[in-house]
Amino acid sequence: MIRKIVLSIAVFFFMALILFTGMMFLKNETEVYSLGEMKLMVEKPTFFTLSEAEPTEDGEDLVYEHAITFFGIPLGTYTLVERTLENGVAIVFEEINNTSWMPYALSLNTNGLKEAKVKSWNEEPISREEDPVYGIDPTRNPFGTISSSENEILQGNLYISRQIPLGNGNKVQELRHEIPDLTLEEGSLLKSFWLPPKHQAQTWFMLGQTPFFESEEKEDEWIQFAAENRRQQLNWLTPAGPLVKVEQTDDLRTELAYDLNEDRTADMVSAEWNEKSPSLFFESMELNAEINLSK
Predict the structure, then answer these.
(1) Cα–Cα distance between 191 and 187 in angstroms, integer?
(2) CB neighbours of 275 closer than 8 A, spacing ≥ 6?
(3) Residue 146: closest CA among 206, 93, 203, 232
(4) Contact 104, 20 (CB under 8 A)
(5) Which of the 8 DSSP states describes residue 11?
(6) Cα 54–Cα 57–Cα 62 angle in degrees, nearest 5
(7) What's the CA dihedral at 113, 179, 137, 263 to 10 degrees?
(8) Does 108 have pLDDT greater than 50?
(9) What digits encode the pLDDT tens for the residues 226-246?
(10) Which pTM does this prediction carry?
(11) Which phi and psi angles does 215 have, rounded to 5°?
(12) pLDDT tens across 134-149, in order?
């Protein structure tokens, strides 16, 4: 009798494992945004559903929020924010918020990048010197620029984080993983990740109809500067503003804690660089800072 019960339990768990594997690894794509030939797709487990979303206006932003469900059970949300700047450049922010207790694998894909040329912003080693106030910031430069016949994209990295309370009552984002190694294959940029329960995944890209720098040499100058001056580059952009390293305290949770900082949000570095070396990138960062400060 006991043997039959044990065997039944083993079969049940084996079948449950097969079902879970099928649910997690059988994938399909849902289109969430398009501009010309470029399309943003959410690649998700087949049995996950992404609800339709009507855009809502928030100042210069259009916000699309999709509910993620599994047979009607809420698992989280996918939110896309499209921000159009005065110079015609668009910044698109993407966020997946896993509100459930189940981890899942997703990929935020950018399709339609045929014959695209990629320039990495992370060819050179990043300075890892420890700041006496802020500690080590492990984040890297954005992924890089992707040029095609239609436009140019500056693609940010992917950030996996969770919200945590500090001892002083402030809530900050604790960086768990930064994913800088995105994959470009067959005209698609793949941003794949596992999202643990109660975590968020965030990424962004800037889209322009002309190159962000007047020459490759000017772009290289900024890349080198940003690699050597970690507190000058804003890597983790969000609709509310850039998330930057908070000051370290005796609270060990501040070791990888990030939050908004009004001084950094103002992005005076981009303003200074735009004066001495004007570019669409620096101008766009200035305009984005103005929007963030007005919120």
Answers:
(1) 13
(2) none
(3) 206
(4) no
(5) H
(6) 70
(7) 50
(8) yes
(9) 988 888 889 999 999 999 999
(10) 0.91
(11) -155, 160
(12) 888 889 999 999 998 7
Q: What is the pLDDT of residues 66-92, one digit of tens each?
A: 999 999 999 999 999 999 999 999 999
- What gap in Å lies between CA 38 and CA 35, rounded to an integer? 5
- pLDDT at position 14 is 41
Check pLDDT > 60 for residue 13: no
Q: Which helix (H) or strand (E) holds 288?
A: helix 280-294
| Beta strands 158-165 and 200-208, pairing class | antiparallel
Question: Do 47 and 59 meet the contact criterion of CB atoms below 8 Å apart?
Answer: no
Given the DSSP bridges, would you call strands 38-45 and 104-111 parallel, antiparallel or unpaired?
Answer: antiparallel
Is residue 42 a contact partner of residue 108, using CB atoms and an 8 Å limit? yes
Distance of CA 127 to the CA centre of its chain: 22
Enumerate the β-bridge partners of residue 49.
69
Q: How far is CA 185 from CA 27, 68, 112, 189, 243, in A?
A: 18, 27, 11, 7, 30
Tokens representing 133 are 């106030």
Structure tokens at 172: 């900050």
Phi, psi of 148 (to 5 degrees): -135, 180
For residue 97, which amino acid is it?
N
> Look-up: residue for tokens 């998700």?
44
- Residue 237 host element (H or E): none
